């Protein structure tokens, strides 16, 4: 039975992440016309669907915010922060009538086609809570803190985190 070296595996994963995965998303995911991120990409980075699920948009925000906060590649901090900020600028999937974040947003303002697109699911709010806190930690932008508090009031644990921030 072969013993797998943790250090070798971690080194291989780090190399793949920094030399392949992150550069791929940096190059291909930002939607410069409508904002947010493309997530339906083939291996070459060609867009095959322009749908934007809000939870995935928030996840990309916090992925790049986490990278910007890390010390992995200090020279990339500003680039990663700018990519994260593209998501903050886009993410307004807020239900103005009832509160909460929609599962899906059509950038062309077309009506929701599938039932679940109009839903407000718990993990979308969790992704947003994490992303807004990371963004606030990086930028000290009061709008992100206000958005965090707004989302927190409509989340699964409504109000639980308000007293710690």
Structure, described:
With 165 residues, this protein is mainly alpha-helical. The chain has a single domain (36-164), classed as Glycosyltransferase, CATH 1.50.10. It is built from five helices and four strands. It has helices at residues 6-28, 54-69, 77-90, 122-139, 142-153; strands at residues 40-41, 47-49, 52-53, 104-105. The chain has a two-stranded antiparallel ribbon with strand order 1-2. A two-stranded antiparallel sheet has the order 3-4. Strand 1 (40-41) and strand 2 form a beta hairpin. The longest helix is centred in the N-terminal third of the chain and has 23 residues, at 6-28. It is globular. The mean pLDDT is 83.
């Amino acid at each position: 039975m072969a013993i797998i070296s943790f250090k070798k595996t971690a080194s291989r994963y780090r190399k793949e992440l920094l030399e392949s995965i992150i550069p791929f998303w940096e190059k291909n995911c930002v939607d410069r016309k409508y904002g947010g991120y493309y997530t339906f990409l083939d291996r070459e980075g060609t867009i095959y669907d322009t749908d934007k699920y809000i939870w995935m948009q928030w996840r990309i925000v916090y992925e790049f915010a986490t990278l910007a906060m890390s010390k992995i590649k200090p020279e990339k901090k500003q680039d990663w922060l700018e990519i994260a900020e593209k998501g903050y600028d886009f993410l307004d999937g807020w239900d103005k009538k009832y509160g909460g974040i929609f599962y899906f947003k059509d950038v062309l303002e077309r009506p929701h086609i599938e039932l679940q697109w109009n839903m407000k699911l718990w993990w979308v709010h969790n992704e947003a809570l994490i992303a807004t806190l990371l963004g606030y930690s990086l930028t000290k932008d009061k709008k992100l803190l206000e958005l965090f508090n707004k989302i927190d009031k409509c989340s699964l644990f409504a109000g639980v985190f308000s007293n710690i921030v």
